[in-house]
Design goal:
49% of the residues lie in helices and 16% in strands. The protein contains 11 helices and 9 strands. By secondary structure, the protein is of the alpha/beta class. The chain is globular and about 50 Å long. It has one domain.
């Protein structure tokens, strides 16, 4: 997209964020239906992922899940304008928090341990980040993938940093600044379930399919003596807002066996997906990297 196109798209998002959430949610579902028709390559990726992960699921049901997924995806795109420009008071009013949101602060005060918030790729991922910044008292840090369009990249950075005390570090940079931030007590917002290639990863099952999965959550948590707390965000139907689940910290995690930890973490993610199947990010090529000698699946 050109710079002008990016500016126009961001301008439209800014205008739309003033709408009541139920109206914006309806528009988002419409956008998702349009994308489902037009974005054939991503639709096929989602269908392929579901076929690999749920081979016994009837094809008609897989297609229904993908249609529903695109509706949630359209909503997440348009509603990002609320997260990027709405007042903190409005955003707080839209978020329902469940679970132990004060864990990170208590752990740091009692033992000096920082917390790793594990946030799998559900479509409400940015809502989870907003809840962490707005609704709990520990400062945060994260790694982000720089966007190819500089206008979108700048907007994303501003949107993610404006709601609280946060630092974000480009994935391409050294991890040393992140280490320093965690040692100072910042919580680490970590995304454990994307395919970034075979480097520093292990092929562990994800719904029975070998998936290149980063070993970093286990290794970082062990190296920096972190508490690991999953955080799952959910978009509620009808524009009712969002629910963010701060789950109990993982027990016996990490261990000395990073690969076993990573396999167990994928099992946890499978369980969370089972509770909200259409809102997981099925359009991501989760199985893009294959074990040596195995053919591609897309």
């Amino acid at each position: 997209m050109s710079t002008l196109g990016a500016r126009l798209a961001l301008g439209l998002l800014w205008l739309l964020h003033w709408l009541p959430l139920p109206v914006l949610a309806t528009l988002g579902r419409g956008l998702g239906a349009l994308l489902h028709r037009l974005a054939g390559s991503r639709r096929r990726v989602a269908l392929r992922n579901l076929a690999l992960c749920f081979p016994d699921m009837p094809e008609a049901k897989r297609r229904a899940v993908v249609r529903a997924h695109f509706g949630w995806l359209g909503r997440s795109f348009l509603e990002r304008g609320i997260l990027w420009w709405a007042s903190p008071e409005r955003i707080r009013g839209l978020i329902q928090v469940e679970g132990d949101i004060g864990l990170a602060e208590r752990e740091f005060q009692s033992s000096g341990r920082a917390t790793m918030w594990l946030c799998p790729h559900f479509v409400g991922l940015d809502v989870a980040g907003a809840a962490i910044l707005l609704c709990q008292s520990r400062p945060g840090a994260s790694i982000y993938q720089a966007q190819s369009n500089p206008v979108f990249d700048a907007a994303m950075r501003r949107g993610r940093l404006r709601l609280g005390d946060a630092e974000i570090f480009p994935r391409s940079d050294s991890v040393k600044p992140l280490f320093r931030a965690v040692k100072q007590g910042r919580g680490f917002f970590n995304l454990p379930d994307m395919d970034f290639g075979a480097k520093d990863a292990a092929f562990v099952p994800f719904f029975g399919v070998p998936a290149a999965t980063l070993l970093a959550p286990s290794r970082l948590a062990r190296m920096l003596n972190m508490v690991v707390q999953p955080v799952i965000a959910e978009l509620l139907p009808g524009g009712q807002g969002y629910k963010v689940h701060f789950l109990p910290p993982l027990e016996h995690f990490p261990t000395a066996d990073a690969e076993a930890d990573t396999r167990r973490l994928n099992q946890h993610i499978e369980g969370w997906i089972g509770q909200n199947l259409p809102q997981y990010l099925w359009v991501h090529k989760r199985f893009k990297t294959r074990p040596e000698g195995q053919p591609g699946v897309y």
